[in-house]
Amino acid sequence: MGRSTVSLQQIADAIGVSPATVSNALRGTGRVSDKVRDRVRAAADRLGYVPSHAARSLRNGRSANVGLVVPDFSMPLFPAFVQAFEAAARARGLALMVADAMGTPGDQAAAIRDLEARGVDAVIVIPVRDTDRARMTPGVPLVVVDAAANPMNAVSSDHRDGGRQIARHLVDLGHREALVVVSAAASHVSDAREAGLCEVFAEAGVSVRRVACAPTFDAALDLGQGLDLGGATACAAAYDAQAVGLITAFRARGVAVPGDVSVTGFDDVIWGRIVDPPLTTVAQDLALVAERALDIATGAAEAGPRLFPVTLVARGSTAAPPERPRDPQETTTDTE
Question: Domain HTH lacI-type, which positions (predicted)?
Answer without folding.
Answer: 6-60
